[in-house]
């Protein structure tokens, strides 16, 4: 794993944390989760459900990573990090609008 890919995996961790923290802050402020799968996990198991869902996504990504040629492997963490970063940014916007 090269430095670029390690950096992207670090970004995955930051994005995951940002998405989870802003999601739960938004829920506490009365906002709703728009993703039906995440909503079901949160409704059924709370924060543990959200972490289980994110953990499953990371586990699938890590399991699929070796299938790719080495030069394409950074796509895997990028594919996790980008949507989670976008979700965290949307959450921040929604929270700021609700305050």
Helical content class: over 70%
Total DSSP E strands: 0
Low-confidence stretches: none
Shape summary: elongated
Pattern of helices and strands: HHH
Number of domains: 1
- Largest sheet, if any? none
Mean pLDDT figure: 95
Q: What structural category do the secondary elements indicate?
A: mainly alpha
What portion of the residues fall into strands of 2 or more residues? Answer: under 5%
Note the total helix count. Answer: 3
Give the distance, in angstroms, between the N- and C-terminal Cα atoms: 42 Å
Layout of secondary structure:
Blueprint: H1 3-28, H2 36-64, H3 75-98
Account of the 3D structure:
With 99 residues, the chain is mainly alpha-helical. It has one domain (3-98). The protein is 80% helix and 0% strand. It contains three helices and no strands. The chain has helices at 3-28, 36-64, 75-98.
Features:
3 helices; mainly alpha; 99 residues
In brief:
By secondary structure, this protein is mainly alpha-helical. 80% of the residues lie in helices and 0% in strands.
